[in-house]
């Protein structure tokens, strides 16, 4: 509910920052997707060519990049669902702040599941 | 002589941002972002789960792994849908970003032309790869191929 003090400006707080993060993550995922289709297309060249290039994904630097990428994808996906709820669910706008913190919590849970397993794959335990 | 009157819109008319109503391209684009987004949640999470979580994760990905997956029409259709929806959704999202930030008509046109070119080329390339892929290319080193290639 808007008050004289806070006004109705759509600026700062959860609404703006989730939008900023949604935009940056979407842009980053799109650029990665272009590269990812290209590297996968190497299966049409030869098994050696594909294995050589995909081998870079298994290095430490790329392994950490994958953490950032998966983090961006999970955030964008969950926040996208939040946008859909705000648009189509009759109570969506009332609960938009809670929905945002829901996104943050589910994101943290999924990352906590992915991170140890990925690090184990990377550093072999 | 009647004096001219100023007419204002009926204060009860609904606020509309554009003059458009009914079905129009921007509204379809808005619907598409939400529909494709919902489908992409399943496609992308399934993709990450199978490729990065199960088995050896990223360490297990090589030619034989991809060959094993694409030997099945299930994963061919999965990846095809993900390719098309992901690139059209992402491309349409980047179109919005360009419209927001590129001020000059010329810059905006050039950036969008580059974007559409990249999207079309990547969709065509990816589609060809999925459908013309041979998991057991003749003359290839057998140890690099999926196990079902023997014989
Ligand atoms: C995983 C499931 C995904 C969901 C649920 C989702 C959801 C959404 C939604 C609802 C929007 C529209 C926002 C609006 O109209 O204001 C959007 C925008 C966008 N999405 Fe996705 N998306 C997903 C995956 C992707 C992928 C894979 C990419 C990249 C290839 C991507 C790139 C973008 C971009 C660039 C935008 C525009 C952002 C902006 O205008 O600020 N999204 N997404």
CATH topology (fold) name of chain B: 3 helical TM bundles of succinate and fumarate reductases
- Hetero groups: protoporphyrin IX containing FE
Helix count of chain A, per DSSP? 4
The outline of chain A comes out as elongated
The tally of structural domains of chain B comes to 1
Oligomer: heterodimer
Shape of chain B: elongated
CATH class of chain B: Mainly Alpha
Secondary structural class of chain A: mainly alpha
What is the straight-line distance between the termini of chain B? Answer: 101 Å
The second-level CATH architecture of chain A is Up-down Bundle
CATH-assigned fold name of chain A: 3 helical TM bundles of succinate and fumarate reductases
Whole-angstrom Rg of chain A? 19 Å
Keywords (chain A): Heme, Iron, Membrane, Metal-binding, Transmembrane, Transmembrane helix
Protein name (chain A): Succinate dehydrogenase, cytochrome b556 subunit
Subcellular location (chain A): Membrane
GO molecular function (chain A): electron transfer activity; metal ion binding
Give a description of the structure:
Chain B: This is Succinate dehydrogenase hydrophobic membrane anchor subunit. Chain B: It comes from Candidatus Brachybacterium intestinipullorum. Chain B: It is found in: Membrane. The complex is a heterodimer of chains A (125) and B (151). With 125 residues, chain A is mainly α. Chain A has a single domain, classed as Fumarate reductase/succinate dehydrogenase, transmembrane subunit (3 helical TM bundles of succinate and fumarate reductases, Up-down Bundle), CATH 1.20.1300. Helices cover 75% and strands 0% of the residues of chain A. In chain A, helix 1 (13-41) packs across helix 3 and helix 3 (60-88) packs antiparallel against helix 4 (96-123). Chain A is elongated and about 60 Å long. Chain B is mostly helical. Chain B has one domain: Up-down Bundle (3 helical TM bundles of succinate and fumarate reductases). Chain B is built from 4 helices and no strands. Chain B is 62% helix and 0% strand. The mean pLDDT of chain B is 91. In chain B, helix 1 (25-53) packs across helix 3 and helix 3 packs antiparallel against helix 4 (105-132). The structure holds protoporphyrin IX containing FE (HEM). Protoporphyrin IX containing FE (HEM) sits between chains A (22-23, 26-27, 29-30, 33, 76-77, 80-81, 83-84) and B (33-34, 37, 40-41, 44, 86, 89-90, 93-94, 96-97).
